[in-house]
Amino acid sequence: MRKISEIDDGTYERPFGGFIDMRRQQVRVLRAHDRRVDEDMFVVTSMSDNREMLVPGDALNPHPTDPETNVEFVARMMEGSRTGVLMQAFVLEAVAKYSELVKQMPQDQRDRMNAGMIAYAPWERCADEALQLFADRKAERG
């Protein structure tokens, strides 16, 4: 299930009273509402104050049952990890180390890659680009 969505339109009642205008607000999808199976309702929290609310699935864009894109998955990994900012360092380090491994790949492994679905040359270009982005970032930060 998709973890982040946006409310297209609407004002929603809070469980403990009061209303909140949630038009165009990002929300974290916690779970499907389990009152009735045939209802398309989800328990979500506002990204700003973490208060829970019940929202119909058709008001969420994209719908919570739509699969996450790779970009959304990586963003969720980096922003919502139980290990906090340590996960950001872990992911960045993993990309940098893997990029270095690709650049140092022995010829026999490169040849095997060329026989597979993704040839070595485009993989190497990705590694080069990632390493360049890291170098640029380091230069910007001094």
Explain how this protein is built.
With 142 residues, the chain is α+β, with helices and mostly antiparallel strands. Helix content is 42%, strand content 22%. The protein has 4 helices and 7 strands. A 5-stranded antiparallel sheet has the order 6-5-4-1-7, with no helix packed on it. A two-stranded antiparallel sheet has the order 2-3. The longest helix is centred in the C-terminal third of the chain and has 22 residues, at 120-141. The mean pLDDT is 85.
Low-confidence stretches: none
The secondary-structure element order is EEEEEEEHHHH
Multimer state: single chain
Main β-sheet description:
5 strands, antiparallel
Helix content: 40-55%
Over the alpha carbons, how many angstroms does the gyration radius reach? 21 Å
- Percent of sequence in beta strands: 15-25%
Number of helices: 4
Global geometry:
elongated
Tell me how many strands there are. Answer: 7
Spatial order of the strands forming the largest sheet:
6-5-4-1-7
Mean pLDDT, all residues: 85
Q: N- to C-terminal separation?
A: 40 Å
> Could you say which structural class the secondary elements and strand pairing correspond to?
alpha+beta
